[in-house]
Amino acid sequence: MSSALEAIGAYVDRHWSSLDTPGLALGLTDRARPLATIVRGWANIDASSPVQPGHRFQIGSISKGFTAMAVLREVEAGRIDLDAPVTDYLPWFLVPSRFERPVTIHHLLSHTGGLACGLDSTGDVVGELLLLLETEIGSEPGTRFRYSNAGYKALGLVLEAVSGRPWWESVHERVMVPIGMGEADVIITNDVRQRLTVGYTAPFDDRPWVPEHGWTPSVWCESATADGTICATAEELAAYARLLLMRGHGVLAEPSFARMTARVAEDPEARGHVYGYGVKWIEGDRLLGHSGSMLGFTAYLVVDVIAGFGTTVLMNSAFGGYRLELARFALACLAAEAAGEPMPEIPPPSEREPWRVPAGGDGNGPPRWEAFAGRYRSWNPWAPILQITERDGRLWASLVLSSSDWGDEERALLRLADGRYRPDEEGSPDRLRFEAFVNGKAVRAVLDGAAFTRAVV
Questions:
Q1: What is the pTM of this model?
Q2: What is the pLDDT of residues 201-219, one digit of tens each?
Q3: Is CATH 1.10.390.10 what the domain over 1-356 is classified as, yes or no?
Q4: CATH architecture under which domain 367-454 falls
Q5: Helical segments of 198-280, H only
Q6: How many helices (H) and strands (E) does the chain have?
Q7: Domain boundaries, the chain
């Protein structure tokens, strides 16, 4: 694999400025064994410590596949029914809904429950899920894809309800240990911090990041929720890639793996990305994987089910760019060398999009909107700033520099009969309200149960 490794390394070097990360570890594997780990950059900028193959990274939502497998193990054991309402296991999980069809375990696994994504504002799984009581089921369960971290948090509690122990013990014992990942960390605790690279983010929280801003260490948070807390090296995570390439052998029975990888719902915001349970097909029948984002970390795991190779891309940056493109190129190189074909040509780096200045307000709206417009802050590092703007006869909301899957794009708002607002998008479960008025201005804005307070700057 010398030619492939040389080409992949050359790609990383040529594209380094557009990858937007201080450091990187890229793991390569076939169906049987790890092939190599390629590292670049810094694990700790201040200490001038380079990334080493033994450094762990937070893999974020790639962890969802592990949770899905643990749930399917319980399905095989007869303790979980995929078609049962979630309330059979969590009676208190009563998200307001106008639909008769309940949210089932299948809906949580496939992101088709109509649930809000969640803003990770509490740091606690039960507290986070209780905030969903301020949202509503946005679309009839089973009819529409909407990515929901909250749904996978609930799956962790379902695992605990049927097993009588923390969800991470089930994931570790029933998924990670059998594939040789027993030494990797299942949850993020203070004890694992010394084994990780330092995670980096932008030094400013009120504007898009550009390279000229440089890096600052990200906020450190412990976390133990089933939507994304595994920490692993590139080689450790490659064991999971091999598990996918081997169709779950050693962990799942064939029917369970087929159910996990069945095409359930396409992401309308990423055409060609079709989700199963904790994994997605990427623009066809060849590539299977999942992305991951955490505070200060980004990742991607992709396997080529036809050629039989897998790659794991781990970055210690909140803005790691072109991860999927790097993974695609690495897999293409491995497949080419295995087939005795020439290496693919290294493409030029993509041109960076210019920083787009958000549009300001024009005051063109009802007088009551003057009480809402402005900037609101929170202590939540996932979503530090909520900006409310009135423009073109509409009220708009954006989460500036958001790291949450709610996104940071500006959304037009629609006023509801109860005085709350929601994004003017079909099937939106999100709800926004304004409260605590002082001198004619709202002091608090509450989005999906997460509170933001009006800021001076």
A1: 0.96
A2: 999 988 888 899 999 999 9
A3: no
A4: Beta Barrel (2.40)
A5: 234-245, 254-260
A6: 9, 21
A7: 1-356, 367-454
